[in-house]
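Q: I'm writing up a methods section and want to include an example of the input and output format. Could you take the sequence below and give the corresponding predicted structure tokens, formatted cleanly so I can copy it straight into the document?
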Amino acid sequence: MNKVRSMKMVVKNIVLVGFILVLSQLAKAQSADEPDGEVQDAEILIEKERKIELSKEVKLYEFIKWKPERITPVSDPSYFKWYVYDVANEPMQFEPAKATVDQKGNSYQHYGKVGFGNYASPLVDVSLNSLDDPNRIIGLNVKHESFAKGEVDDENSASAASEVNLYGVLIGEQVKLESAINYRLENNYYYGYPTGTFVDQADIKHNGNFLNLGLSGRDMESEDSWAYQAALNFKHYSDNFEARENTLAFDLTGSYEENIYLDAEVKLSGYKDNGIDESRAYFRLNPYYRFMLNELTLDVGLSFSVQNDDLPDLSSSKIFPFAKASYALSPDYSVFAQLDGGYTFNSLYAFATDVGILNQSVGIANSERLFDLSGGISGKPADRLSVSAEVGFQSIRYLPILVNNVTDQSRMDITYDVEESKVFTFKGVVQYEINDQHQVSAGLNLFGYSSDGYDQIYHRPTSELLISGDHQIIPKLNAKWNFTLINGIVGQDLSLTDVDVPLDAIPKLDLGLHYQIKEQWGIFLSGENLINKNYSRYLHYPQRGIQIKVGATFRL
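A: Here is the clean output for your methods example:
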């Protein structure tokens, strides 16, 4: 107990001293004109109500077959139950159960799902959770899904992914600790070669290893003037060629009297590949003060960022005003806005997570957000209807762009717009809960790009439409569906006279049915790309057609 209190005092002192030092350094910089489960009887510890976001490693089963990004509601998450269809994670969700006093019905600790589909695609998803003590939680999740063949030369376009997650939570009287270990192995092939080309399968195989270790802690004393949260994270990426990247990240958030805040972020990374040996660093401090004026909440401060990527026209440090506001127009509606600037720390781990067909020795560089402004409105027009809309404008230098390699079209390179890219965004979300058995959601993302360096921002969509539903048809039968329409993607082929190659729109319909035969056992039938659209998310990479899976589920 004394050690915990001592550690807490140290953290408090660090936050306070850091806040004072930052303000003094910012003042100097400005003066010098520098540029920019079933609940059993247990003692349940109640957490204080404080909005703290923990970084989580989320990975949908993308493989090479692409799935749309999550359309995230911009308002209070309590207003939404946004559903993202994932055939590998229904009906089980690998999340620690929240302890509640009034819990009805049965609670299950262990879940599993085993299935098989066309393209010779087995699926295994098993989760084991220890929830006997709500203050001590341990979870283990193992996943595997693979496809023995695809749309191009059968086995040459196969893919597979295996993942192991270990998660733990320890809640004490003063501190809550969370830890996570995630390892993922992805097997893909560079099958985007010209039609008729003879290739050796071993030459086009690409394996990616992803390791993510995380530890975070936050204080639990609701009546204390101080509040803090700290997180330490290590990420490793390597492939079957020569790419290696290790990144260590530390985040600290502190506040005093719910008025004075300080956010700090440090990232240290080492990247090695053929001809590449780089040590990269990123640091950000964001002190701000919160004003509460009736229905208005206003945060005002500064954003101070430093990075060491030595590139033309990319500054090494940046000071930018920070402001965030929210105003309750009525009990049902509120508006919000935010102004910020700084850097986005780009990593090979993140790029390889999104795209499994990256070339070797790709350049990794940070992006500079010269100006970042967003705002919107959220509300509930009716008791079961929630809406949210947000618009944004960003001015970005070194915006990453994906293009096919000039000499080998099957491999994706990363290039950067060294000029200022202006990005306009609109995000809208509507969710309607018809009743307790039926819910529908709709989301729309619109993007506009303008740049002096590129006439076209390649492989980025201009619109994304997502409509989904969750229906309890009868007590034992559940149906979930998801329709997406992606448009505006353009690839680049330098071998053509007109190098810009518009890709067809991507309409995609996914459906999942689950029938609970007995209390612990069920069966499922799922289908992806039921429209059977022959689409390509990336140029020269046609995706699989209709994918059907059938299998069994259990919960114990």
